[in-house]
Design a protein that fits this description.
The structure holds 2 protein chains of 2 kinds. By secondary structure, chain A is α/β, with parallel strands linked by helices. Chain A has helices spanning 22-35, 51-55, 86-98, 110-114, 145-161, 166-172, 174-185, 195-201, 212-220, and strands at residues 2-4, 7-9, 37-40, 66-69, 77-81, 84-85, 104-108, 124-125, 136-138. The model of chain A has no long low-confidence stretch (mean pLDDT 82). The chains are: A alpha/beta, B alpha+beta. The structure holds iron/sulfur cluster.
Chain lengths: 233, 380
């Protein structure tokens, strides 16, 4: 484990990092990451109405290097703007898993913190942090565009300091998140993304990556095998 | 299911395929999906898939006090929240037979029209963006923001201002508010020329929008279309004039009508409506100072307020169409049943499904937006 200032920097594998310039490169990369964030344009709830004012000429977040992006593959930040009903939450999780790491989640609105004014509702998922790791919450109903921008500034700072590690948490504690998802969607819930394989790839497989919930998942997921392809004319 | 586990099914050769639009769109229609069946680039059939924003509103309202419900009703339609508060207040007043002071009625109409202006500006931008023009959407959102500033001054909130309560409005207008409103209207009128040149008479836009998504009057009436979408088919029906509520019968305004019924007609109706709203607001600025009196009639202790038993159906004209609440009270401190009749629940489902048949795939986004549906209103 290395340190910059007094902030511990967790890197995938410390053994490989014998280059004395490694930390400088890390810092440079984080600097670049924080200054060109593309946010996924998925308007999940009513808080999305304050995003167009925040993006356009009055409050203008393009000057911070933040731009809307339409596909999950090219985006870095997932903005969950407001209440997520159970039907939406499936799509949000699918979208989140398709994004490339490192990826960050921002929960805008009180509804993502604790259910907001829909606490008694039968149709909404209450605490977003139980289903995916949230890096920054912005409370308010609805938060003003200034609040949205200051939340994004906070995230930029966290990325630069290496403190925005939500995506690592998703790999390290996948079993916990999967358990909550199964609780909501039923035991046959599955997504096409191979999270455990990705965790191996990033060298982030922790004690809680596999557990009782991933066992349930394995029962109905056939391991990856290339399909024989036949073309008939 | 993992993609590797799909069993391949052999089908006869054809050009047909299915395409899913949404719920993650690049537009501002919101969280709403539309499944299309296509042959080449022609649409064979479409299926609306709503319910991503369902919060169980009508059930939630049965478990809250009459006054607490005011906090959640504006969330039903996000771009245009004021009519929701007003129509809920109207329906409670109709059951209770409350007399609303005249000054409160004028203030309510002022908010309703200002909210209509804000909502239409937002729609212009979104509609233009679906045809690839982004400048109108930047302009529309920026001009709408000035209206939100006025709302913030009046009520404290930018978008959700819980300002109307049964019996009136919460407090009087601040000093000098009408002057600032008048300045905003001057500014909007000075922008009219720019908007016309940039959007409404722009050949690129007109050629994209003309003869796309046609709706005739007979079908519109059959499918329950209301509001600007109905007026674009040539029928001048407007709840404000034909079933006046509040003080609309004292105001002088025209009802813009277009006969073509296509996307262009719908946006032109909205453009004209915007300037009719400006006209209404000018009359309010002239009249409001001479209307004196309180802004609300006192209601009983809101925490123990038993509304009389009875039922009411109140409707207003929101920027999307005819919005109505059917409220039933059994004499308790909570509503027995509230039903919301959102105009978008017709526009976004059966109208869109029927209208998209035979259109081309690149026009679908425009058709969806030209109906100006508000998905939370469909799902409630
Ligand atoms: S916190 Fe308020 S504005 Fe945000 S999603 Fe919930 S109800 Fe809507």
């Amino acid at each position: 484990m290395s340190e910059i200032g007094n902030i511990p920097v967790t890197t995938g594998n410390d053994k490989k990092r014998s280059n004395p310039l490694a930390n400088v490169f890390d810092e440079l990369i984080r600097f670049c990451q924080a200054r060109s964030m593309f946010m996924l344009h998925y308007c999940t709830g009513c808080g999305a109405i304050e995003l167009p004012p925040a993006m356009t000429s009055r409050f203008d977040m393009e000057r911070l290097g933040i731009q809307p992006m339409v596909t999950p593959r090219q985006a870095d930040i997932l903005l969950v703007t407001g209440y997520v009903s159970v039907k939406t939450l499936k799509r949000v999780i699918l979208t989140y898993e398709q994004m490339q790491s490192p990826k960050y989640v921002i929960g805008i609105c009180s509804c993502t913190v604790n259910g907001g004014m829909y606490w008694q509702s039968y149709a909404t998922a209450k605490i977003l942090n139980e289903y995916m790791p949230v890096d920054v919450y912005i409370a308010g109903c609805m938060p003003r565009p200034e609040a949205v921008i200051s939340g994004l500034r906070r995230l930029m700072g966290n990325i630069e300091n290496g403190k925005a590690n939500g995506w690592k948490d998703y790999y390290q504690r996948y079993d916990y998140y999967l358990g909550n998802q199964q609780h909501l969607f039923g035991d046959d819930w599955q997504t096409p993304t191979d999270i455990i394989g990705e965790a191996n790839f990033y060298d982030l497989k922790g004690d809680e990556t596999c557990g009782e919930h991933t066992k349930i998942l394995e029962q109905h997921q056939v391991p990856l095998e290339p399909l024989p392809m036949q073309i008939k004319f | 299911m993992r993609p590797e586990n799909y069993q391949a099914v052999s089908l006869p050769c054809s050009n047909e395929y299915e395409l899913f639009i949404g719920p993650n769109h690049p537009g501002i229609e919101g969280n709403y999906a539309f499944k299309l069946k296509l042959d080449g680039d022609r649409v064979l059939s479409g299926k609306a898939d709503a319910g991503y924003l369902h919060r169980g509103f009508e059930k939630l309202m049965e478990g809250r006090l009459w006054i607490q419900n005011l906090a959640i009703v504006p969330r039903i339609c996000v771009p245009d929240p004021v009519p929701m508060e007003v129509v809920y207040s109207l329906s409670v007043e109709a059951i209770e037979n409350t007399e609303v002071p005249e000054r409160a009625q004028w203030i309510r109409v002022m908010q309703l029209e200002l909210s209509r202006v804000a909502s239409h500006l937002f729609t212009f931008g979104g509609h233009a963006a679906t045809t690839g023009m982004y400048t109108p959407s930047f302009w529309g959102v920026a001009d709408r923001d000035l209206a939100l500033d006025l709302f913030e001054e009046l009520t404290g909130g930018r978008v959700y201002h819980i300002y109307n309560i049964p019996g009136g409005v919460r407090r009087d207008i601040p000093d000098g508010f009408l002057d600032r409103l008048s300045q905003y209207l001057d500014y909007l009128e000075s922008r009219q020329n720019d908007y016309d040149n940039l959007l409404f008479t722009n050949l690129v836009f007109v050629k994209r929008a003309r003869d796309i998504g046609c709706l005739n009057q007979e079908n519109a009436l059959e499918w329950g279309v209301t509001g600007p979408n109905l007026r674009a088919t040539g029928l001048a029906f407007d709840v404000r004039r034909d079933d006046p509520y509040l003080i609309y019968d004292k105001l002088d305004f025209d009802i813009p009508v277009q006969t073509a019924g296509d996307c262009l007609a719908r946006i032109l109706v909205r453009r004209d409506e915007l300037f009719q709203s400006v006209r209404i607001l000018r009359q309010i600025i002239k009249h409001l100072p001479s209307v004196k009196g309180p802004v609300r009639t006192p209601i009983p202790n809101p925490l123990a307020w038993n509304v009389k038993a009875g039922e009411s159906y109140s409707r207003v004209e929101s920027s999307k169409g005819e919005l109505a609440y059917y409220t039933v009270s059994d004499g308790g401190d909570m509503p027995y049943r509230v039903h919301v009749r959102g105009p978008s629940s017709m526009h976004a489902v059966q109208v869109l499904e029927n209208m998209s048949v035979g259109e081309r795939i690149e026009d679908i986004a425009q058709i969806m937006f030209s109906l100006d549906a508000c998905p939370p209103e469909v799902d409630r």
